[in-house]
Predict the 3D structure of the following.
Amino acid sequence: SFKAKGFDGREFLAGIEFKKFMIPLIERFYDDKILDIFEYWKQVEVLHQAYNIDMLFWANPPHRYPAGITKEYFRVHKVPICGMQHGGFYGSSNLGRTIKIDFNNCDYYFSYGFSKEDLEDDTQFLGKTQIIPVGSTVIKECFDKLKISSKDKTKEKVDILFPVALANDHIFFESELTNPKLFHLQKEIVDILAVFNGKKIILKFPVGKYMLHPLRPFIEDKYPGRFIIIDNVSFTESLNRYNPLVVLLEESSTPLNEAVVSGANIIVYNSAQWHALTNSASGLLRRRAVICNDVGSVAENLNDYMSKRMPQQFTDISNKEFIEKYCIYHGEPQDNIRQEIKHLLSGVMKKNREY
């Protein structure tokens, strides 16, 4: 990782040019790892020959070492590669070049529900990869739990629940670099939340990540004891335990998908600086949530909710169309996945027999 190499992410934010630290880092990595890479390549080759592997599947993009070696071996040997969507904002947000990390590492891509047409501006990064909507078994399980718990009248009431995303960049390998755009956005949101004195506000950090999160010193220095901090449960579990008046989100992510089902009021800070919603997703989501494009709008709508004023009336509380396009698709995700894998493998095996 960068930290292991003696690199301080703060230097990057202070203005050191990318190439000045990245090129030496890559050179040192290959100096350290080149023999390991050759050895790992040989191990994958033995595995391939022993089991006559027809297709490679991944659930997270294998761009890091050593998973990237496995992927590259099978790509060189013309074995089809199938990837799987692993986050809620794919398809519903404009991710730009970030999405290339996924599409460049597979021939087929199982999505939660979106298709090529839903990518809008990001279609240029798709290449020859074929998108296959199947849904998500994990999201489906979360939805089933939340549908039950949303009817629980005994859950602890809170005013605002804010799930805080990891504010890290991931470049090549594990990275401790803070993403300055997301970090700035999160500080803006915390400053807004601190204004609401007397309100019960939960900042939900990724499990086990609060002590390492760059937002922690900002919160503890500026707003000590102001918020309820939790990082010991998943976001789904926090929605099962608490009954928030408002769920505030900084992006269209998996927590947004879960919040839609929970029945809570939703405010999405749709910053143009960070994973802005596509036009299609925004149009569907406006039937169910308040979408804010600037800090002032976030503060205004939060104030309305805290003052018991509903900012607007929503036409589609269940938001079925949004859920099917960006969360669980049609039918049972597990059945969809099995059917598509069977279909793909039958095509691969037929092609192999023709050779």
